[in-house]
Amino acid sequence: MKKNRLNIFILTATLLAVMAMGCKKDFDNPNQATAEETFSSDRAATAVAVGLQRQYSTTAASSIYALVDANGFTTKELILRNAGNIPELQLWTGGSAVDGTNTVLNNVWSRSSKIIFDANNVINYANSLEDKSYASGLISFVSIFKALSIGHMAMFWEKIPDTTGVNVAFIDRIEGYKKAVAVLDNAIAAYTTNVPSDAVLNRLQVRNAATGLYPIDILNTLYALKARYALFAGDNATALATANQVDLSKISVLTFDAISQNPVFESATATNNVYQPIDTTLGLPKALEPDLADKRIPFYIGINTTIAPRYRINGFYATGTTPIPIYLPGEIILIKAEAYARMNMLPEALTELNKVITKQPAQDIYGVGAGLPPIAGPLTQEQLLTEIYRQRSIELFMSGLRLEDMRRLGRPLEERKRNFFPYPFQERDNNPNTPNDPLN
Hints:
Blueprint (H helix, E strand, L loop, with lengths): L1 H16 L17 H4 L3 H16 L5 H12 L3 E3 L5 H8 L9 H25 L4 H25 L2 E3 L8 E3 H21 L4 H7 L13 H15 L3 H8 L9 E2 L8 H7 L5 E3 L18 H5 E3 L7 E3 L10 E2 L3 H14 L3 H13 L22 H15 L6 H7 L16 H4 L12
């Protein structure tokens, strides 16, 4: 009964929050409840916070589905299964074929903008609460999805909106990563100053019946995302220090059920009508192709010997209820390796790199492990960064991160089908500050 009441609150809050998804990012509607009316109670604000996770993770319009889709085609991880899927056909073709009408990219843009807007409202409400332990739970939880949304936009576009509202200004994407780090810093401070109470945590998440743990370990996720975006922003010292604070034994996943299914499974894996992995090369150039003894290949790639295509989606998109990790332990280790390499601490970088290369599946909380012999040193900085790119491409396959990795780690443009994406027409039509589209 308690769960049903919470579902009613979530539905009510969602209906109050639903708005036209045009990207001028002014989400106020005179015919709908104001933010003050919507956030009339802790429970209502919590329902909006829970709704952010649903916006981010469920259906083909979700952020996570669009991220995997757009990144995968652009970086050659995926192969198109049906040319009738016009947005995917654009991304598969690449170059000038991708334009501002692309609905996959529009979903990243509009869904991210809406999540940022709603998260800001929750944070503003939480800051007014006298119960600081309840407030910290709200702030830290929604900051995860706000930071992810800022990060997704910064990975795909050269410049991103500085805030939400009418005719907003744009900032450079690296400033966007720094903004995401600031969001996470604020959340970490709130969480560690006033540890969230069970009252708010039990409303935000449902504990796993077997383990008694919440699906998302909030504090570890905040640290992991801060390490990610600090690295992307070029702040290697902060990335390293924060990565060292992540407990690699803790799970943080987006969960699904028979009604709200894993979005990649629901739209791609199950239908075989949108995309599948390109093959066991994972789209990498010949010199960087995975070793066929790498145990991560069968984890991520299924084989069908009777019905085309031969190579099938597996891993974190294998079934409708397969959880999707928000970050992987291997990502955190490789953040350390890259930070060390860029700070010219080459032996330390190789040590971290080899932790990923030698990791057995049984040693990883998600079963992701290469199980290969270590690389012998010494390696130059350039060699280390190339191998880090290779290992990130394998370890984080279909995570949506490869396009950013390609640019940051200096891969040649011909290895991807675009460098940055054009801005959605719905943004350009509503905001005169929209920058010019990139050439490629």
